[in-house]
Amino acid sequence: MISRIDLRGDTLPEGGDLRDLLPRAEFDVEAALEKVRPLCEDVRHRGTAALIDAAEKFDGVTLERVRVPEKALIDALEALDPAVRAALEESIRRARLVHRAQRRSSHTTQVVPGGTVTEKWVPVGRVGLYAPGGRSVYPSSVIMNVVPAQEAGVESIALASPAQKEFGGLPHPTILAACALLGIDEVYAAGGASAVAMFAYGTPGPDGCAPANMVTGPGNIWVAAAKRYFTGRIGIDAEAGPTEIAVLADATADPVHVAADLISQAEHDPLAAAVLVTDSAELAGAVEKELEPQIAATKHIEDRVVPALSGRQSAIVLVDSVEDGLRVVDAYGAEHLEIQTADAAAVAARVRNAGAIFVGPYAPVSLGDYCAGSNHVLPTGGCACHSSGLSVQSFLRGIHIVDYSEEALAEVAHHVVTLAEAEDLPAHGAALKARFAWKVPGK
């Protein structure tokens, strides 16, 4: 079912050449961009009416209003299974612990006597958060987006999730209950590119949505394409692609654990990637054998798990050593990377490229999805080599405040004038000379 890529015996190539040997899902955001453009522009010109039409076309729901009544949020929380509520509350508690520790304080540096630069951190004013609602329901994504925004101090938070025919045009009740637990009362039944456009342009009217400064949250290719379309108008977290797991394992790993973890990501989507990198042919064979009974015992077999594991994006990659395995997983840059080797913590400390790293046999990706306290909105498609997952920092802007006295400016003015003239920007230098009656020290 799952293919093999054998990289043993030869010297591993460098950089892009190594990346090109590794499995990856096809995810053409550029092609999707042209398809979402008319949807986005329809929202721009027709506002809520366009959102209602999109819900009917894509979700099979005829909406009277897009904004979710506050009573629906309260009712969803009251009807929530107590066990699910307890689990969500614990997930929120742990996420707050981790994200509260990410807060940044303003810092002032005295460059010279009378001259300081202060870096202050200011949250964005308003964010639009997206919670998917396609094949599965993701209240965990509500938590992972809302908590860091709240801990960053964002004052205005709105959330969108697709309308569900089964629930009378409202988003899934567990999504609504999670919003209520987090104190989010501005919620919209809007999905896909149209939801991103709603946040980017805003929609007028009493139930309209004010424009947001930033949009975050996972979604399908249409959400990713809409984020690209609006980049520059709004800030985004990332263009999220299909989910990924890579497991770096040696002969000490338990094949039952490894197989279970590969399947756990494969059940997200037929494009989900599951990659095992190992220097043990015995482990590779044991995992292949273990996949069969575990797949037979799970759900979503034909529509998600089997297509994901048998697709071009998934593979068992054989290498000569854990050292070579480290090079492979760094080239791959997985969204989720598990280290199941001897001395896993030491191996994990050497990884440079991953959205999140899970150390040892008792830190599976599923823990991070829900209750580790970490954030599960992570870079995909190899973007972990240059991007980070969602955090408090995602919602903050650093602003430098420059404060120099006359004496401090006079002391450095001749350097400023010299550099301005070296760059052939004489007016820059003139701005200094104007402050000192055209007499600059050293000139």
Word description of this protein:
This protein has 443 residues and is an alpha/beta fold. It is built from 17 helices and 14 strands. The protein has a six-stranded parallel sheet with strand order 1-11-10-9-12-13, sandwiched between helices. Helix 6 links the parallel strand 4 and strand 5. It starts with a strand and ends in a 10-residue tail after the last helix. 49% of the residues are buried. The model has no long low-confidence stretch (mean pLDDT 95).
Question: Between the first and last Cα atoms, what is the distance in angstroms?
Answer: 76 Å
How much is the radius of gyration in Å? 26 Å
Main sheet: strand order: 1-11-10-9-12-13
Helix fraction bin: 40-55%
Biggest sheet statistics: 6 strands, parallel
Beta-strand residue percentage: 15-25%
Number of strands: 14
What characteristic shape results from the CA principal axes? globular
Alpha-beta classification: alpha/beta
Mean model confidence by pLDDT: 95
